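Course exercise 7: structure representation. Students receive a sequence record and must write out the corresponding structure in token form. The form below is the worked example handed out in class, using NADH-quinone oxidoreductase subunit F (451 residues). Read each field label carefully; the graders check that inputs and outputs are placed in the correct fields and that the protein name is recorded exactly as given.

STUDENT ID: A-19
EXERCISE PROTEIN: NADH-quinone oxidoreductase subunit F
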Amino acid sequence: MTLTSFGPANRIKRSAETHPLTWRLRDDGEAVWLDEYQAKNGYAAARKAFADMAQDDIVQTVKDSGLKGRGGAGFPTGVKWGLMPKDESINIRYLLCNADEMEPNTWKDRMLMEQLPHLLIEGMLISARALKTYRGYIFLRGEYTTAAKHLNRAVEEAKAAGLLGKNILGSGFDFELFVHTGAGRYICGEETALINSLEGRRANPRSKPPFPAAVGVWGKPTCVNNVETLCNVPAIIADGVDWYKSLAREGSEDMGTKLMGFSGKVKNPGLWELPFGVTGRELFEDYAGGMRDGYQLKAWQPGGAGTGFLLPEHLDAQMYAGGIAKVGTRMGTGLAMAVDDSVNMVSLLRNMEEFFARESCGFCTPCRDGLPWSVKLLRAIENGQGQAGDIETLLGLVGFLGPGKTFCAHAPGAVEPLGSAIKYFRHEFEAGIAPTSAAVPPLARPIVVGA
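STUDENT ANSWER:
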């Protein structure tokens, strides 16, 4: 995995002033353990939070910073923290770190956990102090075996140093932290499905309300945050709100920096910490180096498999939630994928929808039945056996599985790339319709929503 400098064109060195997440990384890619982490100002923010800040002041600082969730949804972190109950008599609360990272084409949290495990622990420690949670869990994707090994070692180091456990830093505050490896389901990225899995139940999303802040793990107030989100907390506490906001580019409504990346047949696939507001073109050309020789950019996804496709003409969009929304899709995880001109979009979408159909929890009918239906139609079109009306049926499924139509956001994310692929590359879908096929009777397929 590559992680280059803040500005590869002019080789600006990573520093604490510009790279709050990655400045401590070692050049050899090895993990930064406790002694080295503390030598690089590690746990200084935690000491400040425990010694100089009231718990409510920590929450307000994070809220004022504009930090938003880095897992894809982008919900304001301080607002989520503010939903936790203020009642001091509720003495059992939980903090969960969502480290499932099952989104295809996304690996940013893995890098943080493998190379900077203490940054995550410090972020969770400060967050636990703010939220008055006495126990935390890192719900980790089961395939991340190296991350699990490094996190468990870092937890033991922190315990031995008095940074976890009883009476942390002499404050009277107790916080235990455990690494829990999941069984490997995409749906566990949804916070209530994660909670069910942690409790030993089937990983189905829960009905909301009640929200986890009121009724979470084992019925107690619970806050769930993403790995990258929690890793931002120490720098915000250490260096302040104004500094953190100043990191973003002009025009960006999102604050701070973001781990962004590019994969596919680009010259320099990798992962970089960049300010919100850089353009997709900067990310693609200056950092990823453009397409490899012999390939041309056909389309790209800005943030994981659950985001809509964009065209090369959209590369000038700014990489923040509102900037990407202006060109018709979502920022997602911020790790982009380049689709080259040799790829057939029908085959690509069939592969994606097979994944999403397999990973559906099966709880609600539109998702359980609609996604396999899309796979069946796409497979027929891919083999040149599509029937007249199949494209309209696929568009109908995009409408029926869209936002607000299913129990959770799994199906809307699954069909967003499908709808955008048909929008921009309909001719490739039409090429798979058998020339002698008869139209399917209208009642045999969904009505196209909005038609």
